[in-house]
Amino acid sequence: MRTYHLQTLGTVDGIVHRDSEPRPEPGPRDIVVRVRAVSLNKRDLLILKGTYPLKAVPDVIPVSDGAGEVVAVGGEVTRFKVGDRVMGTYFPNWRDGRITAAQFDQPGASLSGMLAEYVRLDQEAAVRVPDHLTWEEAACLPCAGVTAWHALTGGEPLLPGQTVLTLGTGALSLFVVRFAKALGAEVIATTSSAAKADRLKALGADHVVNYVENPEWGAAVRELTGGRGADLVVETNGPETIEQSMRASALYSQIVLLITGSPRRSGIEISNAAYAASLATIRRVFVGSRTHFEAMNRAVSLHGIRPVIDRVFGLDEVHEAFRYYEGGTAFGKVVISMA
């Protein structure tokens, strides 16, 4: 079978192609999946550069997110059968509850990833693909989709009519817009361009604030909410934007912090004035469990939600896909089709 391996850190060229790897066979509780599509996430670039907190094992198969068809099952498998459409989970050992240090292993880092024609998964480390999704769409869900869902549903309940603020137009933020609307929330998004603002509104955002034209965009969010502020902020930038996120927040809001580092700032800083004016709870989220994934899939199916895909590359275009994603211009997910 064809596989890709992270042979050398630091450069996209360090990902090497092989076409003579043996196809995996299932253990008693394993399934073998013919991978049809994978999608890229920021963590894949961080692993490639050697800056991700969880270091990659030598020669690892990269990429965490993928979807495909079950082609073989072990003798003790009860959750799936040959022909089922499945997605791998981001944390194969995290089923439910709070994550523990023993559950941190991830595909594409400490475990073999999805960038191969066939992969072997424990039956507990996969979930079913919603029927209406294509392979490419399904491959977008395991990291960005689950993180967005967990951010919205993992803390105090988000009630219909409350306001959610999401930042930028990364794939995760686009999922937040779709999921928040499905949950009955009013959505405010930030962006840097009128063209992106139009696309955010087409996805369901009720209001869009241009943070280039409004550097103090926290005040703009408060104005849009009649001075009250956002009930939940999905904070995807951390050090660069946390001050304005705090100023945009309602008195008893939730700020869900997804990223804690940046090239320019090494830590989170909030002014005394912003912090003293709020009783917000700051909550850290790191993707989610299989239970989060399955709950999200029910919502995706019920509302017919489809991920936003910017561009699809072929299996012979892996390096091009990584370089395009690294460029940071994508509106939505970058996908590699394996079909």
From TrEMBL:
Keyword terms of this UniProt record: Oxidoreductase
Residue runs in coiled coils: none
EC number: 1.1.1.-
Lineage top rank: taxon: Bacteria
Classification via InterPro entries: ADH-like_C (IPR013149), ADH-like_N (IPR013154), ER (IPR020843), GroES-like_sf (IPR011032), NAD(P)-bd_dom_sf (IPR036291), Zinc_ADH-like (IPR052711)
Domain Enoyl reductase (ER): 10-336
GO MF annotations, alphabetized: oxidoreductase activity
Pfam families from the UniProt entry: ADH_N, ADH_zinc_N
The protein's name: NAD(P)-dependent alcohol dehydrogenase
